[in-house]
Amino acid sequence: MATLGNIDKLILTTKINDKVVDNSTIMDEKTKEAFKNLSKYTRDLLEKEPKMNSNGLNSLKIGLLTYWNESINPDTESFWTELKDNGIDYDRKEPLKFALEKSQFRRVDQGMDARKHWSELKKRKEITDKYSKTEIEKIETIIADDENRRLQILKKCLRKNEIPQTQYLKFGECMAYMSNCGLWDKYFNKEEVQQLYDIWTNFKSK
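User: That's the sequence. What structure does it adopt?
Assistant: Structure tokens below.
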């Protein structure tokens, strides 16, 4: 395989981005359009400035890779596998490695990603090749602990019928987690869910 120059690498990456996005069963059409607009914008800039300096190229690369560096889902694994298969050696951030090191996810959206997609991810070759059986089991524990921690925060607020002043942002994250992961029916009845939303709506900072 011929060695690609920096501009050619980035152009090929935009095409891989589009391929993975087109095949995605996770993204809705509006999200797909946004991703493809970004890759088109990147290609257009490279065509207008074929001698773009390294700082400009790096800025475009960072913008294009932000989602693929921060997300935890099958599309993300497909994207990085495609890059590797095409000889593109960009450094990858590893949210799962961070979680293993810190025993928690860095951001709530990563926790939601992991909760929704782990049952599929843990069967993929990219994951089984990269992580040991013990590490895979630890990731499952981290996901379960994250879910339980958020559940307990909501239950406590429900019992007290209020959100502690210091936990407003955390409460919002927990509400988003339950909604995004489809967990309301697992833990709460309709009246409790409504009460939680009422508590949230009526919160007043002091």
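The chain has a mean pLDDT of 95.
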